Structure formats: structure tokens, C-alpha cells
Amino acid sequence: MASKEEVFTGAKDIINQLAVIIRTAAIHDSGNVAVTTAVDKFVVLMNPLIASEGELTLELGGEFFYINETRIRYSLEYLPNFDFLIREFKKRGLGSIVFKGIIKSVDMQTFLKVFISSVFSETPFETLSEDMAGVSSMSVGKLRKVRDEAEGEFDIRREVKKSYFNAVSYTRGVINKIKSGEKVGIKKAKRVVEGMVDLILEEEQLLLGMTAIKDYDEYTYHHSVNVSILSVALGQRLGLSKKILTELGLVALFHDIGKIEIPNEILNKPTNFTDDEWVIMKKHPFWGVRALLKLRGFDATSMRSAIVAFEHHMNYDFSGYPKTRKRFELDFYSKIISLADQYDGMTSSRVYSRIPMSPDRALSLMMERAGTQLDPILFKFFINMIGVFPVGTLVMLDTKELGLVYQSEAMFLDRPKVLVIINGKGEKAESYIVDLTEKDAGGNFLRTIVKTMDPNKYKINLAEYLL
Ligand SMILES: [Fe+2]
Ligand SMILES: [Fe+2]
User: Fold this and answer.
1) How many other C-beta atoms lie within 10 A of the C-beta of residue 451?
2) pLDDT given for residue 2 in this prediction
3) Angle 376-378-384 (CA atoms, 0-180°, nearest 5)?
4) Does the structure show a pLDDT above 50 at 93?
5) What are phi and psi of 312, to 5 degrees?
6) What's residue 1's pLDDT?
């Protein structure tokens, strides 16, 4: 039998291939060789899995696909196809496809025909479901709504998500180029960061929300982008100009570039580092300087990046590394970026086996460090920005409802919007958003946060709800 891990690896290809056959079938007729080849490939991918699992359910929940309840991770290279498939499923109200036994190419051909034509029906899901009744190896299920959202807000979320993934994808490209010794310039990086700065100025909380989703295959790239977003958002609160914010975002994006020299076996190690491994880890500030000095078109920003790469682990009280003989004033960017870096590092799971810290736990730990390792004034701004209850915090309300902080309100730090996922009766029902600033006729708040809880303990996957 295939292990869950294997299902997981092949799963990405299944989603991708399903998107490919739907795209192909939409432009060619069913007998076309492009369609038949793609369908055959899909069947070859599916059948071994169906055989080993007995039955296979491919389900859409929120913005994610699941195969037999194992969530399929987002993969950057397949992102456009994932997104395409999500939209096509949603258009038809289709929530799942169940493969009940070994499938034949002809079954998939029927599915494709029905799937494509159903979009013209007034009740697409019902049409699809009826027309599939003749195929015994497959059936379809209706889409469950994860939450209700105004269309407008949904569009903004999509926009924010797109620009976030775009930044990650760019970062991956540039890091790999630098790694392979290619000469790169930072002109394009500047454009990517400018886009993010604009979004932060308009949709700060939504973009901060993206940084709360820490569940990705590729930690390094997401970490770089997260640190950049958190730094720019903090800089914005300090009143820095757009030009400076762009520079800060750029510098932040490259703070860990020195890690390209650290072997992957060490970088992705699931257990604690040995002393020898720490010696290597602690060299990444030096290596960062070296990589940045080699950039094409060396300028003041590259210089600033090199300074920050060198200083970002030194700490406010110089208790970190590298050690220097004399103390000096740390670069202002370094102080901002090390806050963002610590917060994102603590709340992320670098490797699958490592459990990330909950946001409020990370903040309280950082609070202890404010004044020693961290700049105390900047930390005040930081905690004000993240909110008393950061996006993604699992909270219990006085109504016994359990939910995730969905959006913070600058005016009412302790009264964010909460996405309730477990209702007052303790049931995992359809989720809904509540606004904690809402009051009843008598002027009393309808709901108040009683305490925060650890989402990992409840096996709650933030990405499923926040993306
Ligand atoms: Fe670092
Ligand atoms: Fe870092």
C-alpha cells in the first residue's frame, strides 16, 4: 500500500494533470490526440492510487484540494493550474470527485464532456451529477461553502494572494540564480517590492494575514517575503516614506541570502543543530555580505543590504552573532528586520516535524527580550501592528465559540474580526465571521475573547481558513 507520504507527493501531479485535461478538452474535441493522450496520462497516474487506497476522493475545501483528507500542498510551479481548477470547480458548485474503483479513459472522457458543458446549465452541479450517473466508477459531490464573503472582499483577497505568491516565486528565482553563480541585478526585485509596498499601504492587514500562513514546502522563500512584508508594514507605522519603504523591503528580502552556502542537510534538519552545525549556521551573515557585494550594479541599496545581512542576528544588546570587538550603532534597517525575522522564525515550522509557536506565544517571548535583545521602542510599534491577537490566533469567545482571528482592527486591538469554526455547542459547523466590536441594543458587546488557544493542539490548519 502506498504510504500517506507517497499519496501526498503524487497528489500535486494529479491536480495538475486534471487541470491540464480540462484545459485541453475545453479547446479540442474529445477525439483529439492531445486530449486522449492527456486523459491516458491522468488515468495512469490515478489507477495505482485508487488500487492501493480502495477509493479516492478528491475534494475542494476553501482554497485547497484534499485527497482522501490529506491536504495537497501548494506548489509554486503548479499554482496557475491549481488556481484554474479551483475556479472551475467553484463555477459549477463542484466540491468533490469520488473515484470508486479503477477508472477507464472512457470514464474520464465522459466526465470531461459533462464537466465542460455543465457550466452552461443554470444548475451546473445538478446537471453534472445527473449526467455522471451512468459512470459507475465515479461520482461527484456538492461544494461546501467554507465561509460567506462579500464578492468585493473576495477579489481583494485574491489580488493580495496573487501578489504574495508572485513575490515568493520571484524570490525563489533570484535566490537560485545567485546560488548558481549567475550575475543578477535587483531592478526586478525593486518592482516586486514596490508592488508589495503599495498593497501594504492599502491592505496592510490582508497582507499581514498572508504572513500568518506558515505551511509551505519552501520555507526559505516564504520567510524572506514574510520578513520583507513585516518590515515594510512596521516601517509604514514609523512614518517612513514610500521610497525608504521600498528600500527597506528590498534589503529585508535578502537578509538571509548567505544561507545559500549552508548545505541543505543542515538547513532542513528536523532535529536540533549540533555545535559544529551551529558554527556553520552562524556564518550566514558573512556569506550574505559576500553574495551581496557580488550583485550586478552595486549601489547604495546593495551596500545597505550587505550591512543588514551582517547585522541581523547581532541583537540590540550585541548578545547575538557575529561578535565584534567594538560596539557601534546598529543600522536602523537591521533593528527593524531583526524584529520581523525573529517573529517569523518563531511562528514558522522550518521543517515538517517542528511545531511552530503560536503568534501570541512568540510575542510574549519577544516582550521578554524587548530592551535587551530587541529595540524596546520598535517592539512597541511591532506589537501594535501585529495586534494583541495576531491574525491566525485561535481564540475562545465568551459565547463558547472557537475561532481564528481573521482581521485586526487598528482602533480596537482586542476586538478583531473572528472566523468562528466551532460553534457554541462545540460542533464543527460551517464557519462564519463575527465582528467583536458589535454591540447589542443595550450597548454591551455581543462577544469577547476569553482566552487564546494553541491551534496545533487542535490540529487546525490555518492555511485552509486564511487563504
Ligand atoms: Fe538569518
Ligand atoms: Fe531570517
Assistant:
1) 9
2) 45
3) 105
4) yes
5) -65, -15
6) 42
H or E segment and range at residue 123: none
The closest ligand to the CA of 220 turns out to be: 2
Instruction: Locate 301 and state its grid cell.
Output: 541599496
List of residues 6+ apart from 166 with CB closer than 8 A: 192, 195
Distance from C-alpha of 429 to C-alpha of 355, rounded to nearest angstrom: 26
User: Which of these, 258, 263, 282, 76, lies nearest to 178 by C-alpha position?
Assistant: 258
Grid coordinates of 326: 567594538
Grid cell in block for residue 286: 558573512
The residue with greater pLDDT, 321 or 144, is: 321
Q: How far is CA 161 from CA 211, 215, 311, in A?
A: 10, 14, 31
pLDDT digits (tens, 9 = 90+) for 286-300: 999 999 998 877 789
Query: What's the gap in Å between 286 CA and the centre of ligand 1?
Result: 11
Q: Ligand 1: distance of its center to the CA of 312 in Å?
A: 6
Return the ligand number nearest the Cα of 348: 2
The owner of cell 486591538 is 413
Domains of the chain: 4-142 (no CATH), 151-386 (1.10.3210.10), 394-466 (no CATH)
Return all residues near 61 (Cβ < 8 A) that are at least 6 apart.
Answer: 95, 144, 146, 464
Query: Residues 103-135: pLDDT tens digits?
Result: 999 999 999 999 999 988 889 999 999 999 989
